[in-house]
Amino acid sequence: MSASKHHVMIKGVKDGLVFLLNDTCEWQDVLQELKHKLEKTHQQILTGPIIHVSIKLGSREATEEQKEEIRAVIKQKGNLLIQSIESEPPKDAAAELSAAPMTTLRGMIRSGQTLHNEGDLLFLGDVNPGGIITATGNIYIMGSLRGMAHAGTEGDEEAIVAASHMRPTQLRIAGIISRPPDEWGIDEAFMEFAYIKEGKMEIDKLHQLHRIRPDSPIKTAVPIQG
Fold it and tell me: 2-58, pLDDT tens digit by residue?
């Protein structure tokens, strides 16, 4: 067995050593190389006083039996003390998407124009009556919203619509459509945002955003002519 395949990498850290085990090769190849490095190539750095060792399995989901095999190999070196044997949590596509950076656009959306964005959108400008702004994530408008806005277009009911001046002809979040504009009762003095609560759309002052959505996170806009 060649030790040059690097199925096992050993790194020194502040509290001891980290063993990084390849998660794409055969398990027996990992065990063989681990034994080889403990007994031959890395014997010198693995001797002496007690050394704390953390085992990183990458994305491999090891069984208890496999973990015990690792323990048995490492215990042969009496000064190595295993602190942990861990796999990386599987990557969550939804979490990655939510962590995507916000897009910042500027301009004006006039009547008959539509602007759509994938993810969260910060729009610096006004949306005029007859204009439409949509996003799969949240929409934040630093300006007047006097047209239509639709956040969470792919069904995200956690999305919000916020605007410096909220006078929309219609708001949508996911599949929920707002009440008529004259029922909002919006205060002119504050920036507001719309959100879904118990299946209904509500409006609140933007300074309440951290309480209602605690996890809520420059190009030039090119509107689509209607």
Answer: 444 578 888 877 778 888 888 888 899 889 888 888 877 666 666 678 888 889 988
Angstrom distances, CA of residue 194 to CA of 1, 5, 62, 183, 224: 63, 56, 46, 13, 25
CATH number belonging to domain 95-225 = 2.160.20.70
Q: Which residue has the tokens 């439409």?
A: 132
Q: Burial level of 64, CB count in 10 A (0-12/13-18/19+)? A: exposed
Which has the closest alpha carbon to 103: 51, 78, 69, 139?
Answer: 139
Overall residue count recorded for the chain in this entry: 226
Q: What is the mean pLDDT of the chain?
A: 80
CB of 140 within 8 A of CB of 124? no
Domain ranges of the chain: 3-86, 95-225
